[in-house]
UniProtKB/TrEMBL annotation:
<keyword id="KW-0804">Transcription</keyword>
<dbReference type="InterPro" id="IPR028978">
    <property type="entry name" value="Chorismate_lyase_/UTRA_dom_sf"/>
</dbReference>
<dbReference type="InterPro" id="IPR036390">
    <property type="entry name" value="WH_DNA-bd_sf"/>
</dbReference>
<dbReference type="InterPro" id="IPR050679">
    <property type="entry name" value="Bact_HTH_transcr_reg"/>
</dbReference>
<dbReference type="InterPro" id="IPR000524">
    <property type="entry name" value="Tscrpt_reg_HTH_GntR"/>
</dbReference>
<keyword id="KW-0238">DNA-binding</keyword>
<dbReference type="InterPro" id="IPR036388">
    <property type="entry name" value="WH-like_DNA-bd_sf"/>
</dbReference>
<dbReference type="Pfam" id="PF07702">
    <property type="entry name" value="UTRA"/>
</dbReference>
<dbReference type="InterPro" id="IPR011663">
    <property type="entry name" value="UTRA"/>
</dbReference>
<keyword id="KW-0805">Transcription regulation</keyword>
<dbReference type="Pfam" id="PF00392">
    <property type="entry name" value="GntR"/>
</dbReference>
<feature type="domain" description="HTH gntR-type">
    <location>
        <begin position="4"/>
        <end position="72"/>
    </location>
</feature>
<protein>
    <submittedName>
        <fullName>GntR family transcriptional regulator</fullName>
    </submittedName>
</protein>
Length: 251
């Protein structure tokens, strides 16, 4: 039987100290050098152990301050379902209300952005064709819990009241309801979730460690004619959120 990697052994030791209340929630851990000396390993081994525990929500890293035992924090339930599209309101806001949390989001839209190769393929357009790109940061009680970057073909909404997803009379109405305004019926969405590590930028925006696990969801909305009308990259931190898929039953 192969020996357990050193960083997993150290992660178990650090976790055990928390279980035994040697360190309490909110306590700052000793330096990596000190832990490494106590455990007989190098600082890189301690770093990997801490990154693993951060990805699991046991520890949290604070830029410029150190590593701390994570405070008890209820995971946010993120429900994925096309059936939750409403004429008014936001599914995200509904989820937060159900948890008794304040919800909000920040967004930034850029029009006439050339489509990168992957986005063009997902939208069924030529690389470099113009799109409307909107980036979102979703907040629960003022803390970021989800990121999203949305792309829509510019020629689909140009010159209409819904060209800006977060501007005009239909701001924040969601893809399905906005497309209905211009006579486009969205029939279904396809989502492809996969786990990966957060990028440096994502970690900074979400307040998590760079090595922390996230779920990356590639979502594309299609019209009833089969045309992709929007595609998005949604990033959810695994330690802070649980993703639930709600599947309507057709009768």
């Amino acid at each position: 039987m192969s020996e357990q990697p050193p960083y997993l052994r150290i992660a178990d030791e650090l976790r055990q100290r928390i279980v035994e209340h040697v360190w309490e929630p909110g306590d700052r851990l000793p330096s990596r050098a000190q832990i490494g000396q106590e455990c007989g390993v190098g600082e890189n081994v301690v770093r990997r152990a801490q990154e693993l525990l951060i990805s699991q929500g046991v520890l949290e890293g604070r830029a410029g301050s150190g590593t701390y035992v994570a405070e008890a924090r209820q995971r946010v339930r993120v429900v994925r379902s096309s059936a939750r599209e409403q004429p008014t309101g936001s599914p995200f806001r509904q989820d937060m209300q159900a948890l008794g949390r304040q919800s909000d989001w920040e967004s930034r839209t850029e029009a006439k952005v050339p489509a990168p190769t992957e986005i063009a393929a997902r939208l069924g357009i030529a690389e470099g064709e113009l799109c409307v790109r909107t980036t979102y940061e979703f907040l629960a009680d003022g803390r970021p819990v989800q990121l999203s970057t949305s792309w829509e073909p510019y020629d689909l909404t140009a010159g209409t009241l819904v060209v800006l997803p977060e501007g005009g009379p239909h701001a924040g109405a969601g893809v399905v309801n906005r497309m209905a305004v211009i006579g486009v019926t969205v029939s279904h969405a396809v989502e492809q979730p996969e786990p990966r590590q957060a990028t440096t930028e994502e970690a900074s925006l979400l307040g998590i460690q760079k090595a922390a696990l996230v779920t990356h969801i590639r979502r594309t909305y299609y019209s009833d004619q089969g045309r992709p009308v929007e595609t998005a990259d949604i990033v959810v931190p695994a330690a802070h959120c649980e993703i639930v898929y709600e599947i309507p039953i057709c009768r």
